[in-house]
Amino acid sequence: LEEAAFQLQQIFRIDISIALNILGIESMRAGHYRVAYTCFKLAADRGYSKAQFNVGLCYEHGRGTEKDLEKAAFYYYHAASSRHPMAQYRYARYLLCHRPENEWDRHQKAVTLLEQAATAGITEAQAYLGVFYMRGLQPKEKRGLKYLLLAAKNGDAQSRYHVGVCYEKGLGVQQNLAEAMKHYRQSAAAGNRNARERLRV
Questions:
Q1: Are residues 112 and 134 in the same domain?
Q2: What is the pLDDT of residues 78-127, one digit of tens each?
C-alpha cells in the first residue's frame, strides 16, 4: 500500500496523506473495505483530517474494521478539531446522543460544533439544529426556523415539512396556512410521506 501511495504521490506530486486517502476512497468504492480502512488509518495517523473523518466512518459503520462508536468519536473529534464540517456534525451528534444530558459543557460544545457545521453548509447539521431548537426544554423557535429554512433550501424534504408545520402552527413565524400548504406540497413532491399525509387532511 505504501508503495502504491508513493507512486501516486510521485505521479501527482501530492502529499502522501492525500495519496493514501485517495487510495482509501478508491478501495472503498471497489468494496475492498479492509484495504480502505488501512489507507485511511495510515493517513489519519499523519494528522490528515479528511482521513480521520473516513476512519471515523469506518468505525461507525463497521467497514474494514469492527464497529466501535467510541473509536469513531475519537477520530471525528480529531477531524472536527481541524474544522472538518462533517466531522463536526458527527462528533456533535455523538456528544448529544451518547453522553449524559446533564454534562452542560459537552452539550454546549455539541451545539457549537453543530452551528459551525451548519454555517459551513452541512444540510444534516442545519436540519438537526432546526429540530433541536424547536424541541428543546426552552424552545428557540425563530432560531430553529432559520436552520430548518437553510436545510429546506438545500433540498432536505423533512426540513421543508417542518417549515410547513411552523407556518401552520405559528412557530417562530406568523401563522400562515397558505404558506404552510406551499411547503407541504414542495416536501411531498420531494417524497416526504408526512407532508403527503398532511395534504390529505
A1: no
A2: 999 999 999 999 999 999 888 665 677 888 999 999 999 999 999 999 99
Give the Cα separation of 164 and 176 in Å (integer). Answer: 9
Do 93 and 12 lie in one domain? The reply is yes
Co-location of 91 and 134 in the same domain: no
Per DSSP, 175 falls in state -
Other Cβ atoms less than 10 A from the Cβ of 24: the count is: 30
How is residue 147 written as a grid cell?
436552520
- For 112, residues 6+ apart whose C-beta sits below 8 A from its C-beta are none
Q: Which residues of 7-17 are buried (b: 16+ CB within 10 A; e: fewer)?
A: ebbeeeeeebb
Of 88, 104, 120, the residue at which a domain comes to its end is 120
- 3-state SS, 20-85, equals HHHHHHHHHHCCCHHHHHHHHHHHHCCCCHHHHHHHHHHHHHCCCCCCCHHHHHHHHHHHHHCCCH
Query: Is 139 found in the same domain as 85?
Result: no
- pTM, two decimals, is 0.85
Domain count, the chain: 2
Structural domain span for residue 148 = 123-201
The string of pLDDT tens digits covering residues 122-149 is 999 999 999 999 987 778 999 999 999 9
